[in-house]
Design goal:
about 210 residues, mainly alpha, about 70% helix
Amino acid sequence: MPANLTHYQVLGVAPDASAEDIKQAWRRASSAAHPDKAGGSADAQAATNKAYEVLSNPERRQLYDATGVDDLITPIEAEARMLLAQMISAALDKPGEDLVGQVYGMLAHEIEKLIDNVAEARALRDNLISRRESVLVDAGDNMVQQIIDDKVKGWDATLVDLERVGKMLSAAHLAFSAYRSAPLATLDEVDAWLQSDYQRQREKARVEGAA
């Protein structure tokens, strides 16, 4: 079997083939690839089974279609690869520009947004907690405290989601570092740079405003 065939080519189906088409194609290809058959081999059978293993799983097929990756990876790594695929696709729509630099810039932008979102969520959550005891009730349940508690739970959930986004961006950052001739900065170093750049921009605006 020729090397570098896609899983679809191994099974002889189109990329938009249905799940049933893929199953039927795998049965035919598996039979033809059996080592006891003329033209078959252990490698061909392994390739056929691997193709079916990936394409018969909706989540793995979606990841494979988007990134070409067919290994078992964590959900965070899968999301990171999907994000990188989207960023690379967007960068390719800008002819003549440095693709690696463009993708790195997109990652930095997403990290910057994450920092702002986390800071805002924490500030709003802490403000609610500080106001919890500001309203007392002489009898019965304290409706204000109940509402505050519900809102705090909501912000806690938001922070958990943002933490997941942070892990995904970190995984994307790590995966993309392989495309650099020199190692990328660590995520903490990127965060520090973003913070210092933000301060420089504020100082510049202040100076220009005072001029």
